[in-house]
Design brief:
Layout (H helix, E strand, L loop, with lengths): L1 H22 L11 E6 L15 H10 L2 E6 L5 H8 L1 H6 L2 E6 L15 H13 L8 E6 L9 H12 L3 E5 L2 H10 L9 E3 L9 H10 L4 E3 L15 H9 L4 E2 L7 H5 L1 H12 L4 H15 L4
Length: 300
């Protein structure tokens, strides 16, 4: 009986581990389905229209091999988004482009857009122009390095415009600025579709994130660069896993290719998402990876 006991013990341990994983709704490996990259920049450093380290063929090859089937494209300047929307390589790769108007023509605009009337005029011009993949569906990404600048005259105009035209907003801001932006919307945040880039890149506590999700019914959290999201082995930290399970319809993933190093690391970034998505029940993983963004933009 001793040999049988030696065999049975590890089998029982393995079964116990599988039972524990099942009880926690965990899958047995990385998520393997499609991804929607909800925070992609195609800036002039990557490709300026004639030269650069990441021409459309190279950028789209990275998306294709990672099963990225759709993207929110927002670029500095907006010509980068126009390029992706029109490229035959985009169609060949099977990538759907959801275009956003970025508020930056150059780096100087990062610190001044919220009070610069020419930015408002540029946004109106881009919205009238549209893209080869269809009308713009949102505004941003934009940054507010000081929360109070959410009350800038152009910031107020653009938030009202976004709500009026049912455009989503991709905002790299802190939680205080989210509150101010929502307060400046005609609905006071009830009808503004705000995608919170990084869901608090400064490390907004999970409890505060939860309170904001409860207060603003259309607030979505994009999870690139989010401090404290993952723990050992790239797995979800317990408090974040609990929050995502409580609000499975409110989170999305993105690459944030704001510098060329992020393009170079695109494979690793997407594999990192697949690792922790595998910690979630399959239906929840699919929503965060793909379904929430497709629902937001009514993609078929």
């Amino acid at each position: 009986m001793r040999p049988l006991t030696r065999i049975a013990a590890p089998l029982l341990a393995a079964c116990a581990a599988l039972t524990l994983a099942s009880a926690h709704g965990q899958t047995t490996g990385p998520y393997s389905g499609p991804l929607f990259d909800t925070h992609l920049h195609y800036n002039q450093e990557a490709w300026d229209g004639t030269s650069g380290p990441f021409p459309p063929t190279e950028a789209l090859a990275r998306m294709q091999r990672n099963q990225v089937k759709a993207i929110i494209a927002n670029s500095r300047p907006n010509a980068g988004t126009q390029t992706l929307a029109a490229a035959r390589e985009t169609r060949a790769a099977g990538v759907t482009v959801v275009p956003f108007v970025r508020l930056y023509r150059n780096r100087d605009d990062y610190n001044n857009w919220f009070r610069d009337e020419t930015i408002h005029e540029m946004v109106l011009s881009e919205l009238a122009r549209g893209t080869a993949s269809g009308p713009y569906r949102g505004l941003g990404e934009f940054h507010l390095y000081e929360s109070a600048n959410a009350n800038g005259p152009v910031a107020k105009k653009l938030i009202a415009l976004a709500e009026e035209k049912k455009l989503a907003v991709l905002a790299h801001v802190d939680d205080v600025a989210v509150d101010l932006l929502m307060a400046n919307a005609p609905s006071k945040g009830r009808a503004l579709r705000l995608i919170w880039a990084h869901t608090g890149i400064g490390g907004t506590p999970v409890e505060r994130v939860q309170a904001m999700l409860e207060r603003y019914p259309l607030l979505m959290g994009e999870l690139s660069y989010r401090p404290g999201l993952t723990c050992e082995g790239g797995r979800l930290c317990p408090e974040w896993r609990a929050l995502i399970l409580k609000y499975p319809e409110r989170f999305m993933v993105g690459s944030d290719t704001w510098v060329n190093q992020r393009w170079s690391a695109y494979d690793e970034i997407m594999q990192g998402y697949r690792t922790w998505l595998g910690d979630l029940p399959p239906a929840v993983a699919q929503r965060v990876a793909w379904g929430n963004a497709t629902a937001l933009f009514d993609l078929r």
